[in-house]
Amino acid sequence: MYFSTLRLLLSNNTFRKEPMSHVFRFHEGNESLDGWEYSNQYDVKSIAAIKDPAGGSVTLPITSIPSPFAGFELVRSAFNEVTKNDAIGLQGQTVYHQLVSFSLDVMEIFFNFKMLRDHYEIIQWTRRDLNKLMDSSTFRQLGATLELFMDQDAEGFHFNKMDSIYLLNYKDGPDAVNIVGGTSPTSVCVASPNDLGYVETYLTNHRAFDADPANFKTLYERSDDFIRYLWLLSRQRSFRLVFEEVVDYVRACFAHISRSELKDTLRASSVDDYSANYEYLQLGANNRVFLLSELPLRIKSDAIGYIASHSDFRILCSKSGGLNKDKPPLVLPVSPFSETKVFYTSGFWIHGNVAKPYCEEPDLNKRELPFDGTVYPYLTPDDLFEPYLIRTPYPINSNCFFTGLLDKSDVGFLLPLKRRLFDYLDLSCLFGMTEELHPHRIFKLELLAGGSIRATLRVPIQQGRYVVYDRIYYNSLDMRPDRMKNTGVLVDGIFDLYIFPWFHLRGGTAASPQRVALIDEDTKAASLYRKYVLQFFRKDGRTCDEVERSAVRADKQQGDPLTTCYNVLSEEYDFIEVSVGDACGLVMPHWKEIAEGSKRVEVAVDFGTTNTHIEYKIDGQVRPFEISGSEVLSMPLHDYLDERVEKLFVERDLDYFLDIPRQEFVPLHIGGERCVHFPTRTVMCRSRRRNASLGSISPLADAAIGFHYERYVEFNHNETVTDLKWTGSENAALTEAFIEELLLLLRYKIIQLGGALDLTSITWFFPVSMMPYQRSRLSIIWKSLATRLISSDCHLSCITESLAPYYYYKNSKGVNSSVRPAVSMDIGGGTTDFVIYDANRPVSLSSVRFAGNSLFGDFYGTDILKNGFVQRFEPKVLEAVCGKGNVQNCYDKIRRCGHSSDVISFMFSLEQNPELSDSGVSLSAWLRQDYGMKFVLLLFHVAQLYYVSRMLKARDMHTPAYLTVSGMASKMLSLLGEDENLQLLTRCVFNTLLQDNGDVELCRVDNPKVITCKGGLDLRPEDAQVDVESLKYVYSGSARFDVSSHTFREVDQAVQAEVLQSYRDFVDFFFDLDRRLPFQKFFGISTRRMDFYREVLLNKSGEYLGTVIEERIREAVEEQTPKVEDSLFFYPLMGAINQLSYEISQEK
Amino acid sequence: MKGIDDVVPVLIDADQQNGDLTRTVELLERYGEIRSHLSFEDVDRDAFFGTSISDKGMHYRVPISGEVNKTFGDFIHFNQLDEQNQALISLLFSKKNLKAEMNVGFKGNPNMGSVVLNNFSEDKRADISLKQLLSSFQCDDRIFIISSIFGGTGAAGFPLLLKRLRGAMAEDFQAAAFLRQCQIGGVTVLPYFGVENSEESTVNMGTFLSKAKSALTYYLNNLDVNVLYYIGDDLKNNYRNCEGGRYQENNAHFVEMAAALAVVDFAAGDFQEGHVFKEYAIRKDVDPVTLPQLSVQTQQVMRKPLMQFFLFCEFFKNKLSKSLSYAWARDKHLQEAVFQTEPYKSLNIFFDGFLDWLHEMEENSRSFRPFDLDFAKQNPLDAVVGILPLRENFLRRHFGPDRGYFTLLDAMEKVSVKMPQKISREDYVMNVFFDATSSVIQQYF
């Protein structure tokens, strides 16, 4: 057997060991093995030597490491691979390069953590967290596995040299928690294996975790800062022992650094520079981040953060919610800074250093600090001062607006400050003084020689210091602003503002309507096309986006002599930016802060056909609505209390600044001895060029109450609409706007008075003849407007205007109907209301359209030329107003519109016109002395008394104890005669017609219009609860005809005949009265042509009756069967009285 | 196997459907069946099926449950973790990992496997099995772990199992102290085949070497074995790409045989003090590899047994019935019907497996071709590739195509008469073949 074996060996060489063999492996090594033989471990070198044909292009994540901590090992081997494997190299596009690049990205994020902390947070994982897993049955397997590997691989993975793993959570990522990387005991850091394309972090020269292989970055391609850091970190003893692969990598990279100066720096650095140059990364007060148990992780000290927390030049934000809170901008001296030891960025400011007064970079956050280079925001004078300073042709009211102007001047200046300042400073800070031992104004404007202005701003910085910025604005037409030289130029702005209201409601949260009027008289050829634009801002510089509407009424570019523009805002604002062309300036009102008071205010609004009046009751006192003294509601920019200003305006031909508000805005003053007062004409003034398509009308913008009407000349661009109440839907919007304006005025008046909006009650009046639907329409308007402008709790009540005056007399003048009845006669412009009271309750009520306009106005088919009163007194009026430009213009305008009632109304107003105060013009006086025309007044009055008698008779009543008279037209009673005689007349008429001899007391006041309001305010709630409809009575003049149920179609010949008979009875009665109470004797009325008058009154009575019936049918065009609403009895008289007054006026 | 009383093979695979796994278990069971009919009373004699292989009642498997109908994230209850642990897990595992369904193993993600497979104490079956397996672990017993480095389960399981054993606690294992101290060897099979490229598959051949490299780096410092055997080969053949399941039935490969030889090497050596590494070599880088190309050491270990078993196999399969009229069978009343019963039924199947194995290795690349399998049916003696029988002796007695069989039959006749009388019929047959094949090989090779 031995032999054969030997032979076998010899013959086949089978067992001869050959020097070379084939080993089953992938790398070169000892090749003389035989079968399974001792060899070496696959070490780093041999692993690296394994030729991996796909290694260069591997994209799938390599997850072959049988450990949960595979990723840690993977990155370590990647560092090794790129460092040791020449075929792969430091730079490349393989998965190894990606792993290394991403790991460096994570390191760099940690390094820059202070700058990136807004976007990242660090989550610390410790053994304690592992124990939590072990303690839970749910997580035990996971915990046990982690523990197993951490214990068993403690050496290989250096788990025994670390205490925590720190995980980077990217706060801006798609998921709740987005871990992008963390520390690792094998390779310093590792990145998450996920697609991190969502990370928007830009490191110095690349985007972190950019998966594009072309953008993988080696260490030497990164910032010098980071290279220096990692170089120093890699030289720390514990680091070297643990992160060998990273150390090798860093060293390999060193050779590739092309910048020799950086290499020199690295060579010259010492190990200790790591602790000297970088600061600890802290997670909390006592929680420092440790890369290894003995190696605290230091990171780049936050230069920006340091400046943001240490520089003495940081602006002292006086606002809690200021911008750049984490990076307050620096305010750097632009002239040698006198203060010493002022800390700048890393040391004290050097005395001689001056920053430039401007910076080319507009974005503060991109600016590089001078003498430092850190990108950090700072401010320059050019950031805070405007290039132009806008000069107004009048002094600005420095009590109400912040001007900063030290000197007295007959011009004013807007603040040449940019809004940016208020990102940091409170308005109150700007208005105030420095807190120095010798305080200075924070902002001031000084006049220099030649009219130039120096603006100075002391910007507060840290430690109670201030940096002074100033800019000179030259008074020169030829100069241009120069930001490099820090100079500006003055520019004239010929405009004025009115702001309404001019106070803020303290603690008010409700919508607070605001109006701002801009009056632009910049109409020189050169500036005709300049447009003034207003923008409104809140304290923090935020734009007030509540400008609801901006209405232009006059437009200089359309040929008007000025431009007026009205801004409607629904919320309070703090300041206004006025811009015109390149120039911009701020208007800063010193807002008066008014807290809403607690007083109850009762308001009565008599919204009449011709006139409107408001009275209110506060603290038990009843007063008319007035705006007087310094208690203005709207505030002009000009100093309205300075007497010089009015003179200046006249001199400089700028009267519009004073005149415009009367017809387009809130008059500065209302009431008192002035022309503008309540009662005022019920009119709205609007632009002729109004936008017809405008659905709603904003009062004090699109239109305004024409307080000027009959008192001041109306501008050509405006037109005034009268007769608001009775016209149909065409003027519905104007009616609503009128009421809205009244309520706007009331709102702020109440606040100013210390009233409580919630406790306010408003009573408004309606005429008896108003249709229920009209009343309900008005009621809805009142309700919605009062809810919006006063309060949802505002108590509204409406009452017929006929009832209110009686209660005035009852409560103020001792009138009482508890024993015998009393009659109230309210003579308005359009209607006269008669109410009979018995036991102080109304028992009968009648409203007829025979009132002031029937007396002074025109009859159907006649015009002003046939109006006796106009014809009679016009020559005298013309004589008086002649040469009084303003009044004359007014008169001409009203005369042109052709309504006699408006002309007469104007004529009556003249005696109160201050322009004519010493001219002796007085229609009242003329009438009182006119024996002819007074006849008509008497006829008018007796007709009404006659009608009352018919009413009383219908109820079988006797002569009343009182006759109270009210209404605007009741003024004419005083023209007729003395009270004593009027009372005789009244008694005579009643006694005769009612056939008794009871006494009657006539009660009347000088200003009858206001007593409706006064009566309304005295009303007890039960007095207002009257069913008007059930009390209505009409004396038709025909026994066959019951007005309440008949229509005009039923007014046939027979009815007409009866009416005419009743009329003739009245005429007879009237002329018969002269016998009982001679007109000549008691009223000084000429009775010379009595027969002719009778003839005039009776001549065409049938014709007049027919005309009025026709007109009534025509007016009620919307009704199929027009109902007779008032008394036919007056119809013939309406034409006759007009005709008679004309005839009398023609008498010599 | 020399120096070994009992081999306890344990197959650990979460993928219970794996075709290769079921094939292997079947053959192991056949081996046990055959062996159960044999007595091996003479402890000094060599014999076929002489090595004791036992399953300790576990059917050669630890039923580890890596196969879960869940995603990995659900398995570890990711969403219920606290912030810190969720953050850590987010760093360690990708979203893709967390969303991966695990019912087909770990698809080459042993980092997940390392968590999922670590359920010996959580999964009761696995726990009991492993405890049962190791309950009788003795002081001098050894453990050898075979795994590939570039796969899924094995790659994950090897270090995990190792860590479990080295970190064994008395409360888990009776023999914890022995386990921590015992000799443990392992063979790490590096890539030796590729897979067809597939767009859908997460198994990508391109990463095999990259994966192997990073795993090797991990092994560098984190593997506490006494001896580690490395083997791998150029990626010459692409297997069908499948992520697991019953279709994963790959042809046997020379590298696998060489890896199996590491077990023999480990059994024979003493690595108590060591922390050593071994690699495998053949004489020349050839393809196909033939017996003469194997290293001297390998030839010493396996050439003769392999040839013996091959001759046995060929004779048994092709000429057994014709030989039954000869004295070796006739005297013992071995009729045809006897060979239709156990253990011969199993033996027959085992031979089929043996021939499949040889066929597959031959067809694989790199090919291992010890025998010319086509020619062997005619004359197994002349079928040993690269080694010719000694002619002069050979020609002395027999001519014609069946001369190899007759040479073996002669030897059988000779050895049969020397057999002790009292041995069982099964022991008799097995010993006759063993001695005959042994004598033929000694005589002619």
Percent strand of chain B: 5-15%
How many beta-strand runs of chain B?
7
Strand content of chain A: 15-25%
SS summary, helix count of chain A = 37
Distance between the ends of chain B: 23 Å
Side by side, the strands of the main sheet of chain B go 2-3-5-7
Judging by the overall fold, what is the CATH architecture of the largest domain in chain B? 3-Layer(aba) Sandwich
Chains forming the largest contact: A-B, 93 and 102 residues
Q: What do these coordinates show?
A:
The complex is a heterodimer of chains A (1148) and B (445). By secondary structure, chain A is an alpha+beta fold. In chain A, 33% of the residues lie in helices and 19% in strands. In chain A, the strands form 13 sheets. A six-stranded mixed β-sheet of chain A has the order 19-17-23-22-21-20, with no helix packed on it. In chain A, strands 33, 34, 35, 37, 41 and 42 form a six-stranded mixed β-sheet that branches. In chain A, a hairpin with a 2-residue loop joins strand 34 and strand 35. The longest helix of chain A has 24 residues, at 1053-1076. The model of chain A is unreliable at 1-18 (pLDDT under 50). By secondary structure, chain B is an alpha/beta fold. Chain B folds into two domains: 6-280, Rossmann fold (3-Layer(aba) Sandwich), CATH 3.40.50; 297-444, no CATH class. Helices cover 45% and strands 8% of the residues of chain B. Chain B contains 18 helices and seven strands. Chain B has helices at 19-36, 72-75, 83-92, 95-99, 110-116, 124-135, 153-166, 176-181, 208-222, 254-268, 296-318, 320-323, 327-330, 344-363, 373-376, 391-397, 403-416, 425-444; strands at residues 103-106, 142-148, 183-189, 194-195, 227-231, 238-239, 276-282. In chain B, the strands form two sheets. Chain B has a four-stranded parallel β-sheet with strand order 2-3-5-7, with helices on both faces. In chain B, helix 11 packs across helix 18 (425-444). Chain B is elongated, with a radius of gyration of 24 Å. Classes of the chains: A alpha+beta (1148), B alpha/beta (445). At the A-B interface, helix 1, strand 1, strand 2, helix 3 and strand 3 of A face helix 3, helix 4, helix 5, helix 7 and helix 9 of B.
